[in-house]
Amino acid sequence: MSWPLLFVAGLFEIAWAIGLHYSDGLSRPIPTVGTAVALLLSMVLLSRAIQSLPIGTAYAVWTGIGAVGTATLGIALLDEPATVARLGFMSLIVVGIVGLHLVSTG
Hints:
The protein has one domain. The chain is built from 4 helices and no strands. The chain has helices at about 1-20, 30-50, 55-80, 85-105. α1 runs antiparallel to α2 (about 30-50) and α1 crosses α3 (about 55-80). The radius of gyration is 15 Å and the shape is flat. The N and C termini lie close together (about 10 Å).
């Protein structure tokens, strides 16, 4: 059950990272509250996942999901560039996440 929890924690990390953009420096109340809730849920789920996963693996996967997901939404929603190099390096992060999952127990 730890891997699904970790995956959902990563999704909430994406949500709070994107929420920071929409909160406009935490000056808009509704996006700020949504960002805070997503951050709290992400941390709670990560803390549950590390009860049976190695902390280094879990943290690397959690941040990797957040990084790739946030960069992807930056491209899709915020008109950030989708260069070949950027997409290639994002792909390397995904390969690392998959690799850590394949060599880890839990």
